[in-house]
TrEMBL record:
A UniProt-annotated Pfam family: PDZ_2
SUPFAM superfamilies reported in the protein's UniProt record: HCP-like (SSF81901), PDZ domain-like (SSF50156), TPR-like (SSF48452)
Gene3D superfamilies: 2.30.42.10, Tetratricopeptide repeat domain
Naturally occurring in which organism (per UniProt): Thermodesulfovibrio yellowstonii (strain ATCC 51303 / DSM 11347 / YP87)
Signal peptide (from-to): 1-19
Protein name: Tetratricopeptide repeat domain protein
Ranges where the PDZ domain occurs: 435-509
Length: 651
C-alpha cells in the first residue's frame, strides 16, 4: 500500500513538473484590418514579425521586428481577469519596458535630456505588448479572428500578439502559430487562473471594482453561477454593504427567497433605511403577498425619504388594486405621479447646473405608467367620464401611445359602446406594428447578442436563438466598426434599409460560424396580444364567434405569457367543448390574477364545463360591488354565468 501511494505521488509530481516546464515556441506575422471608406481591407505584412517562447507560463526570448525597428520587452506578467474586456480580459500576458537595439546607440551619442525625449517618443508607440490565451471557440474574439484568417488565407491563429501605444490603441496585431516541429498546439491553456483563483486574488487586493465588473460581465453572458459567486464575494468584501448587485441578481433570476433573506438581514442592520423597506415591499408584490407588501410600505412611509418616495406610493397603488380598493389606488398613483415628476424635474435642473451632456428627459412621459394605472382604477370604479377625460388629455400630448388607446377600449366597453371600443383596440394594435426581424438584441461584450426571439417572426423562422452573437451584417464584421460607430444602431439601420438581411452568427462556442438570411416583415409586438385578446372578448359578446376564435388564437400565439390572452383562450376552449384545455388555461393564468375579467370568466368556464359546484363556489367569491356593476361588458358576462348555471341545474 505504501509503495502505491509513493508511486501516485511521484506520478503527480512528474505531471506537475511537466505542465510547468512545457515550452511553446511561437512565430507570428502581422495581419492588418483597416477601415477605408467604410469598408474593411485585410492584408498581411510579412516583413513584420514576432517570435517568443512560453515557458513556465511567461514569455521568453521575445523578438519583435516592426519596420526598421527590432526590439523586445524586458518584463512580463500573467494578467488577472478583472471584467475590463477590451483593456484586460482579452489577454493572458502583458509585456512591458520595451528595449530596442538602437537604444545603446542613442545613449552613446546624445545627452541625457535628449535620450529621455527619444525614449518617451518611442515608448509611446510601443508602450505594451499583450498576448492572448489560446484561441479556442469560447474565446471572445474567436469569430473575428477566424474570419480574418480566412480572408488572408491563413489558419485561425493559435494566439495573437498585440502592440499597444500609451493611449491604449492597438497599432499592430500579429497572428501567432506554434512551431509544431517543437511541440503540438496544446488543447487547453494551462497558464490561466481559474475563476475561483481570480476572485481570491481580487479579494486579497480588496479590489471591489474588479469583482463587481466580473459579476456584471458574467451576468451579461448569462453565466449565472459565476455571476452569483462574484456578487457574493462583493458582499463579503464590503461587509454586506454592497448588497444591491446580489439582490438584483436574485430578483432577476426569480430567486425571491434568497432576495428576501438579504433584505431582512439588511433591515436588521439598518432599521431606519426606508429604501430597504421599499425593496422588500416590491419583492412581496412580485410574490403576490399583498398584506406583507402593504406592511413594509407603511413602515417605509413612516420613516420618510430623501428621494424615491414615489416608488412607495406606486407599490401601494398596486396593492390597492389587488385588494380592489380602487379609490385608494387612484390616490396612491396620483401621488406617485406627482412625486416622480417633481423629483425628475429636480434632477434635470441639477444636470443643467453642472452642464452635463445628457439626453433630453421627458418627465411627463416617464410618469405615464402611474397615470395609466390611475385610468384603469377609475374605469374599475366605473367613473368612465373622468377616466375618458384623463385618457384624452394624455392623448393630446402623446397621440401615438398605443396603451392609451387600450385603456380607451376598456372604458368604452364599460359604457357599452362596443363599436368605439373595437376602434380603440384597432388603433392600439396598429400602433404596435413594426417592421423588423422579431428579435430583441442588445450589445454584448464584443458583439450584439440575441436575448429573446418573438414567436412567428422572421427570426424564429430562420432559427435565431437566445444567446446567439451577431458577428456580421452582410460581409461586414461588426467588431471592426466598434471605434467608429454605434454597433446596435448600425444593425438597426441595416435591417430597416434592406429587403433581405444577411447575418453571420456564432452559437454555443461552436468552431463554425453560421450564415442566415431573413426577410424583415411588418408584424405585431408581443404587447399587442392584450389589445387583440380584449377585442376578441368584445366580438364574442357581440356574437362574432369566428373572429373571436381568430383573434384569440392570434393573441395567444403572439404572447403565450399574457394573462388576458390565456383567459380568452380559456373562453374559446370552453365554447368549443374542450373543457379540460379550458381549465388548463385558467390554471396557467394563475390564481393571483385579481382583474374583474378573470373573476367573471372563471365561474363561467367551470359552469359551461359542467362543474356546477365549483362554478357556484367561484361565483360566491365575486365581490359584492362587481355583482352590482354598471359596466356593460361585465354585466353581459354575469348574465351569461347565471344563464348557464340555471340551464345546468335544470338538466
Amino acid at each position: 500500500m505504501k509503495k502505491f501511494f509513493i508511486s501516485v505521488m511521484l506520478l503527480c509530481l512528474v505531471e506537475f513538473a511537466y505542465a510547468q516546464s512545457e515550452i511553446e515556441k511561437y512565430r507570428c506575422i502581422e495581419v492588418r484590418t483597416d477601415l477605408v471608406d467604410d469598408k474593411i481591407q485585410y492584408s498581411i505584412k510579412r516583413e513584420n514579425s514576432v517570435e517568443f517562447i512560453l515557458k513556465n507560463c511567461l514569455p521568453e526570448s521575445l523578438k519583435i521586428h516592426v519596420g526598421d525597428k527590432k526590439f523586445t520587452y524586458e518584463k512580463s506578467k500573467i494578467l488577472v481577469e478583472d471584467g475590463r474586456i477590451e483593456k484586460n480580459d482579452l489577454f493572458a500576458f502583458e509585456c512591458y519596458q520595451p528595449f530596442f537595439e538602437e537604444d545603446l546607440y542613442h545613449y552613446r551619442i546624445t545627452n541625457q535630456a535628449e535620450y529621455i525625449k527619444y525614449l518617451n517618443s518611442r515608448n509611446y508607440r510601443f508602450h505594451l505588448g499583450k498576448i492572448t490565451p489560446l484561441i479556442t471557440p469560447d474565446y471572445s474574439l474567436y469569430p473575428t479572428l477566424k474570419q480574418t484568417a480566412e480572408k488572408v488565407n491563413l489558419e485561425t491563429p493559435h494566439r495573437t500578439f498585440v502592440i499597444l501605444n500609451r493611449s491604449g490603441g492597438a497599432s499592430h496585431e500579429f497572428f501567432c502559430y506554434i512551431d509544431e516541429s517543437h511541440a503540438k498546439k496544446p488543447l487547453q491553456d494551462k497558464c490561466l487562473y481559474s475563476f475561483d483563483q481570480v476572485l481570491d486574488i481580487h479579494m486579497k487586493n480588496n479590489d471591489a471594482v474588479a469583482i463587481k465588473a466580473l459579476a456584471e460581465k458574467y451576468l451579461k453572458r448569462l453565466d449565472y453561477e459565476k455571476a452569483e459567486k462574484a456578487y457574493k464575494k462583493l458582499m463579503e468584501l464590503s461587509n454586506n454593504e454592497d448588497y444591491e448587485g446580489l439582490l438584483s441578481f436574485y430578483i432577476t433570476t426569480n430567486q425571491y427567497r434568497k432576495a428576501e433573506e438579504i433584505l431582512l438581514k439588511k433591515i436588521d442592520e439598518s432599521p431606519y433605511d426606508a429604501r430597504l423597506y421599499i425593496s422588500l415591499a416590491n419583492l412581496y408584490l412580485h410574490k403576490s403577498e399583498y398584506d406583507r407588501a402593504k406592511l413594509f410600505i407603511t413602515k417605509a412611509l413612516k420613516l420618510g425619504f430623501e428621494e424615491g418616495e414615489y416608488k412607495a406610493y406606486g407599490i401601494l397603488g398596486e396593492v390597492y388594486i389587488a385588494e380592489r380598493n380602487f379609490k385608494g389606488a387612484i390616490l396612491s398613483f396620483k401621488k406617485a405621479s406627482e412625486l416622480f415628476k417633481k423629483e425628475c424635474e429636480q434632477q434635470k435642473l441639477l444636470m443643467d447646473f453642472f452642464k452635463k451632456d445628457t439626453e433630453i428627459v421627458d418627465c411627463e412621459l416617464q410618469a405615464l405608467p402611474y397615470e395609466l394605472k390611475t385610468i384603469y382604477s377609475l374605469t374599475e370604479l366605473e367613473d368612465f367620464i373622468e377616466a375618458e377625460k384623463m385618457a384624452k388629455e394624455i392623448l393630446s400630448k402623446k397621440q401615438d401611445n398605443p396603451y392609451i388607446f387600450g385603456h380607451l377600449s376598456f372604458i368604452y366597453a364599460g359604457t357599452g359602446d362596443f363599436e368605439k371600443a373595437i376602434d380603440a383596440s384597432d388603433k392600439a394594435i396598429s400602433l404596435l406594428k413594426r417592421k423588423g426581424i422579431g428579435a430583441n438584441i442588445v450589445m454584448g461584450e464584443i458583439y450584439p447578442m440575441v436575448v429573446s426571439v418573438d414567436r412567428n417572426t422572421p427570426s424564429e423562422k430562420a432559427g435565431l436563438k437566445r444567446g446567439d452573437r451577431i458577428i456580421n451584417i452582410g460581409d461586414r464584421d461588426l467588431r471592426l466598426y466598434r471605434e467608429s460607430k454605434d454597433i446596435i444602431q448600425m444593425l438597426v439601420d441595416y435591417i430597416s434599409s434592406n429587403d433581405t438581411v444577411k447575418l453571420t452568427i456564432h452559437r454555443d462556442n461552436s468552431t463554425d460560424l453560421k450564415k442566415i438570411e431573413l426577410k424583415p416583415e411588418e408584424f405585431l409586438k408581443p404587447e399587442a396580444s392584450q389589445a387583440l385578446a380584449f377585442k376578441a372578448i368584445i366580438l364574442r359578446v357581440k356574437g362574432n364567434y369566428p373572429e373571436f376564435e381568430n383573434l384569440t388564437t392570434k393573441a395567444y400565439e403572439l404572447n403565450p405569457e399574457d394573462k388576458l390572452a390565456e383567459i380568452a383562450m380559456a373562453l374559446l376552449k370552453t365554447d368549443t367543448g374542450s373543457f379540460n384545455e379550458a381549465l388548463e388555461f385558467l390554471e396557467k393564468a394563475g390564481k393571483d390574477v385579481h382583474g374583474s375579467l378573470i373573476l367573471l370568466i372563471r365561474p363561467l368556464v367551470y359552469a359551461k364545463a359542467g362543474q356546477v359546484n365549483k362554478a357556484k363556489e367561484l361565483y360566491r367569491e365575486i365581490p359584492e360591488e362587481l355583482l352590482k356593476t354598471k359596466n356593460t361588458l361585465y354585466r353581459v358576462l354575469l348574465d351569461e354565468i347565471k344563464r348557464v348555471l340555471h340551464d345546468k341545474q335544470l338538466n
